[in-house]
Amino acid sequence: MRTERDGAQHDLRHHGDAEVRDGGAGLTDLAVNVRADTPPAWLREVVAESLGGLAAYPDGRAARAAVAERHGVPAERVLLTAGAAEAFVLLARALKVRRPVVVHPQFTEPEAALRAAGHVVDRVLLRQADGFRLDPALVPQGADLVVIGNPTNPTSVLHPASVIEELARPGRVLVVDEAFMDAVPGEREALAGRTDVPGLVVLRSLTKTWGLAGLRIGYLLADPGTIAQLERAQPLWPVSTPALAATEACMSPRALAEAAHAAHRVAADRAHLVAGLREFGPDGLHVAEPAEGPFVLVRMARAAAVRRHLRDLGFAVRRGDTFPGLDEEWLRLAVRDRVTVNRFLQALDRAMALAQG
């Protein structure tokens, strides 16, 4: 693990959707971490029914209360946002911080938002040799804003909540991106809903589990003072009426039970994917383990060529070299059902052979 002061530039705005757009209509998507076959029919019906209220300005009170009830906190500790991406922009623009630190490899949007707001960003780079695990002692003492994902995209590492808590201290904002936490069975290691950790800000997204990337809905949990500060930086009516209806529906007991079931299914499908990847052997392919998110990070020689050949064979995967701390030998694979995974593994075997010439 090492610290990098305003380090080398990466394409921080590159995201998995770039791998499947522009001629990728026929591709099987293992690049985007949105759960397949979503949104479910019942959720599409909720969104459709909300269209009758489009003439009125959005009223987020019911959705905000639903999120608060789901996490057992007062509504004053909840801020609804137009996706988690808006939350990162609000944090970067509204909070007066002097030394922000982002723990990498992780989702690059937090650093991109900080840089766009004029901040100089420190990076703590987690290493493969350490299993991409966090050592809180490596985060600079002077950092007054620390950002970490849990489980982390793209490494699929689930950090113990007790380890992340060690980063908290008076005068520091600790931002934990839990966009994929509902894909972890039992949401173990979650910090959402905790009110005893100083400076804690937790982000959640409805994009991944429910397939709502096009609707843009997420939320942020923090102390009321921080929520008020961020809310003042928001434009009026930032979340649309359909997105608010979806939020309220996704907090229902039915939805939470469905998400919990999906998390167990993803875990089983991920185990199948990892088992198949291991069969390539350590000389051909390395899997970052243990993987706990709905995606798996792998390293292989000539990964860029493999990715191109996979595309020709009908599969899109996420390049890893746009994540600080990784290079062109890394690829991220979204977890899919067993039939799709089996097809992918056959294509991967062919693509690796083609890349070797």
Topology:
Layout (H helix, E strand, L loop, with lengths): L1 E4 L22 E3 L10 H10 L10 H11 L6 E4 L1 H12 L5 E5 L4 H8 L5 E4 L19 E5 L11 H5 L7 E5 L22 E6 L1 H4 L7 E4 L2 H10 L7 H10 L2 H26 L7 E2 L7 E5 L3 H10 L2 E5 L10 E5 L3 H19 L1
Organism: Streptomyces cynarae
Family: Belongs to the class-I pyridoxal-phosphate-dependent aminotransferase family.
GO molecular function: threonine-phosphate decarboxylase activity
Spatial arrangement of strands, main beta sheet: 1-5-4-6-7-8-9-3
Q: Count the helices. How many?
A: 11
Number of strands: 13
The percent of residues in helical segments reads 25-40%
Biggest sheet architecture: 8 strands, mixed
- Radius of gyration from the alpha-carbon trace, in angstroms: 20 Å
Globally, the shape reads globular
End-to-end C-alpha gap: 35 Å
Give the class from helix and strand content and strand pairing: alpha/beta
InterPro entries: Aminotransferase_I/II_large (IPR004839), NHTrfase_class1_PyrdxlP-BS (IPR004838), PyrdxlP-dep_Trfase (IPR015424), PyrdxlP-dep_Trfase_major (IPR015421), PyrdxlP-dep_Trfase_small (IPR015422)
EC number: 2.6.1.-
Family: Belongs to the class-I pyridoxal-phosphate-dependent aminotransferase family.
Region (Disordered): 1-21
